[in-house]
Design a protein that fits this description.
By secondary structure, the protein is of the alpha+beta class. The chain has 2 helices and 8 strands; from the N terminus they run βαβββββββα. Helices cover 16% and strands 33% of the residues. Strands 1, 2, 3, 4, 5, 6, 7 and 8 form an 8-stranded mixed sheet that branches.
């Protein structure tokens, strides 16, 4: 059964993920990734251009299907070994969050629309994914 996810990641990290065909979550932890399964659809939301700083983006910036079975660990430096999971990305166009806020059930309060994204990686329903994916595939 397909499940649907949002992963909140800065734009620079999303670009690296798309180039490498993977996702990370929770600053490289494996536990969040173990909730995903092969065939799940995942949309990436980028609040800013860079983690903790950068210019506002506030767009859904990538869309893909989980293609790996298990997370795996990589070494980026001697003291940083993040976990990743393979994703096959689609060719899509970034979609601003603004026009979608009123259509998304996972945003219960439009005045505080950014709050759900603080969870990082979180599950959404099929109807919400249809809205997000539809906006990204429209162009």
């Amino acid at each position: 059964m397909t499940r649907y996810w949002i992963n909140t990641i800065s734009l620079d990290h999303v670009q690296r993920a798309v180039e490498g065909g993977f996702t990370q979550a929770g600053h490289g932890k494996d536990k969040p990734l173990r909730r995903l399964g092969r065939g799940d659809l995942i949309a990436f939301y980028s609040p800013r251009t860079a983690m903790g700083a950068g210019d506002p983006v506030q767009q859904f910036t990538a869309l893909g299907t989980v293609s790996g079975d298990d997370p795996y660990q990589v070494e980026l430096s001697p003291d940083f070994h993040p976990w990743r999971l393979d994703v096959e990305f689609e060719q899509v166009t970034a979609a601003p969050i603004g026009p979608l806020i009123g259509q998304l059930a996972f945003i219960p309060d439009p005045q505080r629309w950014g709050f759900p994204f603080r969870r990082g990686l979180f599950e959404i329903d099929a109807a919400d994914m249809a809205v997000v994916a539809g906006a990204m595939r429209a162009s």
